[in-house]
UniProtKB/TrEMBL annotation, chains A, B:
Domain Prephenate/arogenate dehydrogenase: 1-275
GO biological process: tyrosine biosynthetic process
Oxidoreductase among keywords: yes
Protein name: Prephenate dehydrogenase
A GO MF label: prephenate dehydrogenase (NADP+) activity
Pathway stated in the Swiss-Prot or TrEMBL entry: Amino-acid biosynthesis
């Protein structure tokens, strides 16, 4: 197949490398930065630099841009996708992106399937990309109204790239779950390092500090967009979190050891049960 | 030297194993559980099972019990420590323990130095202990009024066990910093997994979920004691955290992208600067 990758950042670059390393498909790379394209070519992460005519021959298009740019790209390029072409994205939020792309796809002969590879790291850009980024990761698919065959193609590609789990859901379920599993840890990490004690943590900290603060090394522009594109779900989940912090704080404030042990034990049981 | 270890749990067991593996000192083990003592003996983690006469010959005593039990043990055994014996503990809070033990030490010829090896894991007990637990970890010492020679002895032992950093401070500073570096991550992890979304996280989660939730596999009894023994500092730090979460939430609620990017960028800068 001819596979086009739009945007060779951390995710797009890693998809390109993983496809080249694990499949025989032809990978065509698009990026606004010429040096990135040259690096990708020289490293063998792509077979050729993209052009409109190459895009018109693509069987699968991974649009690996920020949410608003994904919509803009598909709006502008919809007339160039060939009939039956599978267009997918990698955005960390789905309601806004899937809704708009599903609408656009109704007027053109391409197929849209929402996608979200659950992998990342604290660095961004093509230099940080790697073929093994998705190894054992989860790949969430939001098929919407797409035919089964399109989803099957993406799953087959994902498995060849090393993804460990495939999860299907609606865009609403995706955004609700992602607010919890991904956005809240980023809110927390940032709020945590804002404490004046952060400045002096060295020598007083160990694994638990390191783990909670890790994702504070955040891509601020990207995550601001992701948070704002999921405002209601994130607000609900933040309220849930603050409510639970307050339950623990209240037990401490009241010096209520029995209540505190009960709360911590229930947390332990949940962690042991759900992993 | 003759080194006594009181309580062969995760920390005491690891100290015993690390001392036996890295030094020529004699290690004497005390534990209320006979099977633990037999295991420790057969694994070579201790040279002999403790007795009052062996305690009376000890040059260094590591009391590796829960905070209240540390105080009780030292109260009861103060008459048995030999002149110049160095008594230390491994508690995660210091105000309560150091205050009381410093008082007791004034009436006896032994020397007390507060200690806190910054290492742990999600399992507890002797079975979870290991000689390498302290490798590259930080060892916080609260010397109080102890002579330099006593602190030097503990530092020398710590270095031979592989500790990477030695930090000296007052008990007040210790408890303030620990509320932030260690207690807040445990509060957070427990509050985080209390969300109903935790039950369905599988397939939707990746590294950031795993890292924030890790220490929810908590020793509830121990941490309830640690939280309650540091109520004021923990309350202050919890307020600081909730205030910062609310700043991020407010920017999201107002759809204020500039403010949100500024907050996340400031968090990133702090993480990059302070690690």
């Amino acid at each position: 197949m001819q596979i086009a990758i739009i945007g060779l950042g951390l995710i797009g670059g890693s998809l390109a490398k993983a496809l080249k390393e694990n499949t025989e498909h032809t990978v065509i790379g698009f990026d606004r930065d010429e040096n990135t394209l040259l690096d990708a070519l020289s490293l063998g992460a792509i077979d050729s630099v993209g052009s409109t005519s190459l895009l018109e021959n693509a069987d699968v298009v991974y649009v690996c841009l920020y949410p608003a740019d994904v919509v803009r790209f598909v709006e502008e390029n919809a007339p160039h996708f060939k009939e039956g072409c599978i267009v997918t994205d990698v955005c960390g939020i789905k309601n806004q992106v899937c809704g708009k792309l599903t609408e656009i796809a109704k007027n053109y002969p391409f197929v849209y399937v929402g996608g979200h590879p659950m992998a990342g790291k604290e660095r961004s850009g093509f230099d940080a990309s790697e073929a093994s980024l998705f190894y054992n990761a989860s790949y969430i698919l939001v098929p919407g109204e797409a035919p089964q065959s399109a989803t099957d193609t993406l799953v087959s590609l994902a498995k060849s790239m090393g993804f460990g789990t495939i999860k299907y859901c609606t865009q609403q379920k995706h955004d609700r779950m992602i607010a919890y599993t991904s956005q809240i840890p980023h809110v927390l990490a940032c709020a945590y390092v804002m404490s004046p004690r952060c400045d002096e943590h060295s020598g007083f900290s160990a694994g638990s500090y390191r783990d909670v603060s890790r994702v504070a090394r955040i891509n601020a522009e990207l995550w601001a967009d992701l948070f704002l594109a999921n405002r209601e779900e994130l607000a609900d989940e933040t309220e849930e979190l603050v409510r639970n912090i307050e339950r623990i704080r209240a037990a401490v404030a009241k010096n209520d050891r029995a209540e505190l042990v009960a709360l911590l034990s229930s947390a332990r049981e949940k962690k042991e049960k759900f992993g």
